[in-house]
Design goal:
Blueprint lengths: L3 H4 E10 L3 H17 L3 H14 L3 E3 L2 E2 L2 E4 L6 E11 L9 E10 L3 H15 L2 H9 L3 H16 L1
C-alpha cells in the first residue's frame, strides 16, 4: 500500500453519517464495507466486534479506528465516516468520536495490517487533517483532503 488514498475505498466513504452510538456505527459501517467489498456483512461485523472487545479503538482527538482481519481480502482496505452525532468509543482521552476510519485487512496480513494501521493513525494525529475532514461534505471532499496530504508528504 503506497498511500492512504490507495487504501480508501470510495464506496465506503460516509462524510455525513447519521449513525448514533458505537453499536450502530459499527453495524452500519460493517454493512457498508461488506457491500462494497462483496463480503458477508455478518462476518465483517463479527470480526470488527471481536477486535473491539479486546480494547477501545478510540485513539483520541475524536478519532476511532475500528479494524479487523478477514478472509476474502487480497489487500488492506479502509472506509471513512464523519458522524453527525459523535459516538462513545471509550477513547483514551474520553472524547466522543466523530471521525471513524474502518480498516479491514487479509487474515494473513500481519505486517501489512500493522503498517496500514500505523499510516492511518499517523494521518489522524494531524490537527489540520482532522479539521479538514470535519468540514468535508462529500466523498470527493474527503478524497481531496487525503490527496492533498499525500502530495504534501511527497514534497
Amino acid at each position: 500500500m503506497s498511500s492512504l488514498h490507495d487504501l480508501l475505498h470510495l464506496g465506503a466513504v460516509y462524510p455525513r453519517a447519521r449513525w448514533q452510538g458505537r453499536r450502530q456505527v459499527l453495524a452500519e459501517f460493517s454493512e457498508g464495507m461488506a457491500r462494497t467489498l462483496s463480503l458477508d456483512p455478518r462476518r465483517v461485523h463479527e470480526a470488527v466486534l471481536e477486535r473491539e472487545r479486546l480494547g477501545s479503538t478510540g485513539v483520541g482527538e475524536g478519532v476511532a479506528i475500528p479494524h479487523a482481519r478477514l478472509d476474502g481480502l487480497d489487500r488492506p482496505v479502509g472506509g471513512f465516516a464523519r458522524l453527525i452525532e459523535p459516538a462513545d468509543f471509550d477513547a483514551i482521552d474520553q472524547r466522543r468520536c466523530d471521525l471513524v476510519f474502518m480498516l479491514l485487512t487479509p487474515s494473513e496480513a500481519g505486517a501489512d495490517h500493522l503498517r496500514a494501521l500505523a499510516r492511518v493513525s499517523r494521518l489522524f494525529r494531524q490537527e489540520a487533517i482532522r479539521s479538514a475532514l470535519r468540514k468535508a461534505q462529500t466523498a470527493e471532499d474527503v478524497l481531496n483532503v487525503l490527496v492533498a496530504r499525500q502530495a504534501d508528504d511527497a514534497a
